[in-house]
Design a protein that fits this description.
The model has no long low-confidence stretch (mean pLDDT about 95). Strands 1, 4, 14, 15, 16, 17, 18, 19 and 20 form a nine-stranded antiparallel sheet that branches. A six-stranded antiparallel sheet has the order 2-3-5-12-7-10, with no helix packed on it. A three-stranded antiparallel sheet has the order 9-8-11. It has six helices and 20 strands. The chain is about 10% helix and about 40% strand. It folds into two domains: about 5-215, Jelly Rolls (Sandwich); about 230-315, Jelly Rolls (Sandwich). With about 325 residues, it is mainly beta.
Length: about 325
């Protein structure tokens, strides 16, 4: 059985609102000065991650999911379930909403809707995002959308580095200018734009809005989901649960020395946010540093961590 970390190369995506932080903070070779997203764990057809080293070097994650299901203890023929990104919002993202699984399958013909969550890696002072809306009922929501009463409709939330935000499908949302996030989401690229600040693309065209679909899928009224943030400490390893729900579990691991840990999930997605150190699996040691992303495959049970590091760890 294959029992070593599967290190992945990020897939860089240009966006109208992107910037240069992915180069400055993580050393990635960005395609332009408006690079908005690094897809760091992805099997999605719009940008599949490639294995960067080791025995599986050159394979893409979708190939491994299809042909090496034992690496994930794969139980069905469905698509790889999750997608992890780093987003650099040099400008405001469009205000948008995503469908749930049923709507995505019936209307778009794709396997997954999009529930997502954000860990705030950095935020300029006073930065905010949009999470939810103020409408009490469907009639009120449609009236405010139709009349363009955006300032009254959108619900603004200030954020700072280290904050965590859970965004179920059906939630109106937008990441604001000056925020860098790590996003764990269902493996979906379906977005319905509600408002885009009347921006024009490189060709001088305003981007398409999807108001009818947005009205069909938006949760009304908006309700925040309570989160518990339970913490467990094991020697020099502190694990803080950020969210545990139907589609994914996401945790923040803080390593401050040497620590052992027993993995119980089928596989883990691991993103190194800060610091450096190493992970030992099956007697082999692998160096880690900020901006490295990997999957611990099924069958790796006992690991040893060493160093000063902050990790986001997730699994279906």
């Amino acid at each position: 059985m294959f029992k070593e970390p599967i290190f992945l190369e990020p897939v860089l995506q240009e966006r109208i609102w992107g910037g240069t932080k992915l180069r400055e903070e993580y050393g990635y070779e960005i395609p332009s000065e408006t690079t908005g997203e690094a897809w760091v764990v992805s099997a999605h057809p719009n940008g599949a991650s490639r294995v960067s080293r080791g025995k599986l070097e050159g394979k893409t994650l979708d190939q491994l999911w299809k042909n090496r299901g034992e690496l994930f203890n794969k139980k069905s023929d469905g698509e790889y379930p999750l997608l992890v990104k780093i987003l650099d919002a040099a400008d405001d993202l469009s205000v948008q909403v995503h469908p749930d699984d049923r709507y995505a399958q019936e209307v778009e013909g794709v396997p997954y809707g999009k529930t997502e969550c954000w860990y705030v890696l950095d935020a300029e002072q006073g930065a905010n995002l949009i999470l939810g809306h103020t409408a009490a009922d469907k009639a009120g929501f449609e009236k405010m959308v139709n009349q363009g009463e955006w300032e009254q409709l959108f619900r603004y939330v200030k954020v700072q580095k280290g904050d965590f935000v859970y965004v179920p499908s059906g939630t109106i949302h937008a990441i604001g200018r000056g925020i860098t996030i790590l996003e764990v989401q269902q493996s979906s690229d379906i977005t319905y734009r509600v408002y885009d600040y009347d921006r024009k693309d490189k060709a001088g065209n305003t981007r398409e809005l999807h108001l009818d679909k947005a009205k069909a899928v938006t949760q009304i009224p908006h309700e925040d989901v309570p989160l518990s943030f339970e913490t467990m400490e094991n020697g020099d390893l502190k694990i803080r649960q950020l969210v545990k729900e139907h589609y994914f579990t996401v945790e923040k691991w803080e390593v401050s020395g040497k620590a052992g840990h027993r993995v119980t999930a089928d596989f883990l997605q691991v993103n190194v946010l800060e610091g450096k150190g190493s992970i030992e699996a099956e007697g082999e040691k692998y160096d880690l540093a900020k901006g490295i992303h990997f999957i611990l495959p099924n069958g790796v049970r006992d690991i040893k961590l060493d160093g000063e590091m902050e990790l986001i760890v997730s699994h279906p």
